[in-house]
Amino acid sequence: MKHFFFTFLLFSLYWTFARAQGGVDTIHYRKVYYWGTTGMGFPIGKTKDILSPKFSGSIGLDISLKNPMFFVSPTLYTLSFKYKQRLVDPNFEYRIEDANTNFYTLSFSGGIRKQMRLLNIYGFVGPGVGLTSEPRANVLADQKLIKMENKNHLNFSSKIGAGADYKFNGFFLGLELGYLHNFRKIQDTPVNIFTVMVGLKSDITQIGDKVINVIGIDGSISGKKEKK
Q1: Rounded (to 5) percent helix, strand, coil in the chain
Q2: Pair 137, 151: CB distance under 8 Å
């Protein structure tokens, strides 16, 4: 299953690149978009022994480069899962079942897209860094109390994906599919997650222009104010 998704995403990236060689992008020229989504992360392979999907989300930016066919997208993914502890933690007496865990991943992706009138298709790939929060239970028998704790781990990751969005009056509605791999294992188990996200994309270029003006940098993102 993991290889199928990986092959699909690679093909999507290749197809997007091939289609983007011709045509002019008129929607994304000198634009910055805010991209907010909701969806789920689906564990793949052995990861399913530890994690089960719950509703998740992401927030990020879509920043067009000088050639609007290319873009960069810093995005924060907050992926939530049901959690089953298979291995005994020597620092805790009991294992946990049916708990919750979260992955906070900041992805720095670069991508390429193709505009087809109001429909856009794109592919992206990039590294990420994040925090994994694993629950633990500390049983205080003398107090008849179970005290929940979190073990936080820093991890590095990679993400590849493809998506499409459609421009309505004032916003885009989009669907994004992705494959996330964390290089740090969880309970000696590889972390591979297939993400499905649906959300809205809004034009915040004017806000970017104002920020540039406030910090005293000449020019603007939109090109309405040229450098001196």
Answers
A1: 15, 60, 25
A2: no
Low-confidence ranges of the chain (pLDDT < 70): 1-26, 29, 208-228
Residue type at 148?
M
Cα–Cα distance list, 171 to 27, 49, 201 (Å): 11, 39, 6
- In whole angstroms, what is the distance from residue 174 CA to residue 58 CA? 13
Instruction: Tell me the per-residue pLDDT of 63-84, one tens digit each, with 9 for 90 and over.
Output: 988 888 899 999 999 999 999 9
Q: Which residue has the tokens 């805010």?
A: 34
* pLDDT value of residue 219: 47
Phi, psi dihedrals of residue 109, rounded to the nearest 5°: -105, 150
Query: At a CB cut-off of 8 Å and minimum separation 6, what does 102 contact?
Result: 78, 79, 80, 81, 132, 133
pTM above 0.85, yes or no: no
Q: Give the C-alpha separation, 5 to 7, whole Å.
A: 5
Q: What tokens does 35 get?
A: 């991209």
- Whether the Cβ atoms of residue 192 and residue 2 lie closer than 8 Å to each other: yes
Sign of the alpha-carbon dihedral angle for 89, 93, 97, 99: negative
Give pLDDT tens digits for 138-152. 888 888 888 888 999
How far apart (Å, rounded) are the C-alpha atoms in residues 52 and 37? 20
Structure tokens at 16: 């997007």
Predicted pLDDT at 146: 86
Question: Got the DSSP string for 123-153?
Answer: EEEEEEEEEEEEEEEEEEGGGTEEEEEEEEE
